[in-house]
Amino acid sequence: MPFPARQIRAAHTATTITVYQAFSPHIAEPAAATGRFPEAFKRERMTWIKPSFLWMMHRSDWSRSAGQERVLAVTIRRDGFEWALANSALSSYDAQQHRSREHWRQEVRERPVRIQWDPERNLALQPLPRRSLQVGLRGEAVRRYLDEWITGIEDVTALAEHVRRERDAAALPVEQPYVLRPELAERIGCTAG
Hints:
This protein has 7 helices and 9 strands. 33% of the residues lie in helices and 27% in strands. It has helices at residues 25-34, 53-60, 78-86, 101-110, 140-149, 157-166, 182-188, and strands spanning 9-10, 16-23, 47-49, 70-77, 88-90, 113-121, 127-137, 150-155, 176-177.
């Protein structure tokens, strides 16, 4: 059975979800050591979290891109993640989702979270026909993420290198469908809630 076009697939438990980010060592190393992002983390900028490990590998070129040499698996509370989805705006206008372009622009201005659906990637980082979720946090959402939602941070750079070098699909994090309430699925344009 084919995957839905837009579905959140993630490593998750009943209370947490794992998302990925990549940073330079001066941010990632203290974050992994303490379970909290250091003061050097720029709270005023939008920060993007990704539930898909392989999409993070594509974005960071297997942790080889400048400023993205360390990949972090950040475990956050599900209620925080779902708050982000409930307070989001799609990053691009969708006539089926929005009453008008102006309504969409107003949501983008007012809401602290951006939702973007990009092509999911396979083990060779080639695009797949289904989409992967990216969540951009700014303002209040960044504060909540950093100060309330995080339950753990792990440096998975060695895993990224192993998977890249060996093309070891068995080593990939197990990402299962993340079921959403219908109103959240509708808000973010998810085709499988």
